[in-house]
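Dissemination and training. As part of the outreach component of the grant, students in the summer workshop were shown how a complex can be specified as a set of sequence lines and then modelled as a single object. The example used during the hands-on session is reproduced here so that future cohorts can follow it. Participants entered these lines:
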Amino acid sequence: MGYELKMRVWRGDASGGSLGDYAVEVSEGEVVLDALHRLQATQTGDLAIRWNCKAGKCGSCSAEINGKPRLLCMTRLSDFDPAETITVTPMRAYPVIRDLVTDVSYNYEKARELPGVELGPRDADGKRRMMQVDVERGQEFRKCIECFLCQNTCHVTRDHEDNKPAFAGPRFFLRYAELDMHPLDTLDRRDTVRETAGLGLCNITKCCTEVCPEGIKITDNAIIPMKERVVDRKYDPLVWLGNKIGLRNKDNEGRAAT
Amino acid sequence: MTTGVDGPGRAQIEERTLRTDRWWLTPLATFIVFSGFVVFATVRAFMGRDYFAEPYLSPFYSPCLGDCVEGASDFGQPFSWWPLSAALIILIFPLGFRMTCYYYRKAYYRAFWLSPPACAVAEPHSAYSGETRFPLLVQNLHRYFWYAAIVVGLILTFDVVLAFRPMPDEYAVGDGETSGVHMGLGTLLMAVNVALIWLYTLSCHSCRHIVGGRLRHFSKHPVRYKLWTWVSKLNASHPRYAWYSLFSVAVVDFYIYLLATDVIDDLRFF
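and obtained this result:
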């Protein structure tokens, strides 16, 4: 049961651009990326789209559909009324390269700033051991496909370009949380996540969680726990006093002293 | 705005959002309801009267530590010199707990400060420093308000127990009703309210962190891990409990106000 889909697609580059109106034949069961591919094949041979797996696992085809940050390949046309015009634009937090393709280098720069895992010594038999319950805790965070939709939606940098140097963004708070909850990691990242990654800039308005195509509870399970860990480290006067007078030394939980 | 979605290098799109759904509805509803509650709570807190209808004490005035009416102060009156309403002595604790709550922060940053009004809708501010500076740095004290909220919860639970007290003679509406245990609609409302307040308090993100979330090794702390899993389940409904308990506090207070001003009589079950 095909029909003619009305689309508005942003075309242009850093020097300027606009929304163009198109009509394209689509079929039952198709997604927005299918419609864009048909548009590319039949009408706009030079339309630039970044895509790879078409299965919601590579995180390449991030864009904004009717103003909402989504994966082009995971947005079904059946979610829309056939009479509705679907508007597709590139992610609006990043410099546009061309059409629907943006320059997401910011995210790779932030990834490089993040201290990697620092494992402690191996057990006597040369192995490292983790209990299943500790392994399971980080599994949710490892579902991240790095589509950067959370990074794109976060108003801290989306609406304030000047915050980019000081703010790592939700995707990397997820990584900080994963490492800080890792039972074998020895590095204390609580100062880094506050000072270098700018965790304090986040005002937990949960847009990252709303747009995550993997359904990761970024705010509840990563950002807020990291904020609480920073409070342990920086803003809890009882912990500070306990550490100062030597009454408390469990706070590091296997982390190297800093 | 020149540094946000309209900034140089970004795709040139005039609209601050291209969202076609009713994204403004949730922040608008939040704004209206929260504003209504703030007005109601402020008026009631400053009134300094009609907060006690034996055996019911309004949650806005509990514990009543100021110069309260007879029978309302179950913990004495250490602040009897306080010239203003007794509610103002203790309301800082529940107010602080809710103001620094991770859910309420999300709700009022969106609805009142429009930062952002909704996801992928450009905010109107030209600068943004988040929670890195005073006064928003104070949000980091949420866990202290949580400790206070536990005490408040215990006191409100005690109030519910007291709400089962026999009614004094002048409130009797039938023969022999002043002896034994009493239960009225007020008791029921207070019990429901305290249940919702406990659900809200125990589903708090700071509670989740304190009971076990702060650990790196769940496997070494099985009891705390179990507590963490329970709190995590409650935590998923934290926003719902935040709303329900907000309404229930207001309903209980208003019911007691109506009783205290003789507008209605308590509906007695036994």
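The first strand of chain A starts at residue 3 and ends at 13. Students were then asked to discuss how this feature might be tested experimentally.
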